[in-house]
Design goal:
By secondary structure, this protein is an alpha/beta fold. The chain folds into 2 domains: 193 residues, Periplasmic binding protein-like II (D-Maltodextrin-Binding Protein, domain 2, 3-Layer(aba) Sandwich); 93 residues, Osmoprotection protein (prox), domain 2 (D-Maltodextrin-Binding Protein, domain 2). The protein has 13 helices and 11 strands. Helix 5 packs parallel to helix 6. The protein is globular and about 55 Å long. 45% of the residues are buried.
């Protein structure tokens, strides 16, 4: 069996259970944070986001750029994890969402094996169902990582993820709840790097809770996104991933195929062409003190 197969079956099952729990209703109603953009209405393009700050920012960027082009949009933000918002993409309650090439490919294709940017994007395009389309990927990339404090890295001589192996039994790993089952989480760290942590502590993805837990010693290693300004601010050490457990994660618009028009494609491809890892990281610093919609507006005004 493919090394990623088991955890992906768990992912699919989790999505099915979530749909069942919703009783066939809109999975976005309970957890989504709805705001309405300019020109909303029955024909508006509904833009969703996952429940972490960077994805909210990207959704606001898409909304601002499309609205400026005269396209009616609405936003439904902070929906939840991929298992939750993909239900919305499937049932048509959302039409567009910022995604990340590697993890989306793995979600859709249990046999996904590519790790390099262009190859991952090609594999993603082959893995999409007919009702979903991805437009051009951005140079901007935000990957999962395993990070530790500088003190921990120095104490144990940690450079790469595998260096944790002899120490993990005495360590607590922190990350989003889905890391418990996703291959790009606890199962993959066990299989690829032989890491057996003493326990796993679920924490909100991309949250300050993860940072604080790492700083105060409640956890010893953490899943922190590579564009998170907390890495530089706290001198965290992102451990190298020589076995490429974390594939390329370029930002990419995922859109319902029947909502693609030449104008929407042009607008979103222009956003992607101007979105770099550097400016995305800089915007994430701004988001700490400024509303994502305002940061998005400044970026879009500069296009």
């Amino acid at each position: 069996m493919n090394r990623r197969r088991t955890t992906l079956l768990v992912t699919v099952l989790a999505g099915a259970l979530a749909l069942s729990a919703c009783g066939g209703g809109d999975p976005l109603d309970e957890d989504g944070e709805q705001t309405t953009g300019t020109g909303g209405g029955e024909d508006a393009l509904i833009i969703g986001s996952a429940n972490f700050p960077e994805n909210v920012l990207l959704a606001e960027i898409y909304a601002a750029a499309l609205s400026d082009a005269g396209i009616a949009v609405e936003t439904n933000l902070n929906i939840g994890n991929r298992e939750a918002y993909m239900l919305g993409m499937e049932d048509g309650s959302i039409h567009l969402i910022p995604e990340y090439t590697g993890n989306l490919t793995l979600f859709l294709n249990e046999a996904a094996q590519e790790t390099e940017s262009d190859a991952v994007f090609a594999e993603l395009q082959e893995s999409l169902p007919d009702n979903l389309t991805v437009l051009n990927k951005a140079e901007a990339e935000d990957k999962d990582s395993v990070a530790v404090t500088r003190e921990t890295a120095d104490e144990f001589g940690l450079v790469a993820i595998g260096d944790l192996a002899p120490h993990a039994p005495n360590m607590v790993l922190g990350g989003p709840a889905e890391w418990r089952d996703r291959f790009t989480g606890v199962p993959g760290l066990q299989e690829v790097y032989g890491l057996e942590f003493s326990s796993f502590r679920p924490l909100d993805a991309g949250s300050t809770l993860t940072v604080q837990a790492l700083l105060n010693g409640q956890i010893d290693a953490a899943n922190i996104f590579t564009t998170d300004p907390a890495i530089a601010e706290n001198d965290f050490v992102v451990l190298e991933d020589p076995e490429s457990l974390f594939a390329a994660q370029n930002v990419v618009p995922l859109i319902a195929t029947d909502r693609v028009t030449p104008q929407i494609e042009e607008v979103l491809n222009n956003v992607s062409a101007n979105l770099t890892t550097e400016n995305l990281t800089a915007m994430m610093v701004q988001v700490q003190d400024t509303e994502p919609a305002d940061v998005a507006r400044e970026f879009v005004d500069g296009l």
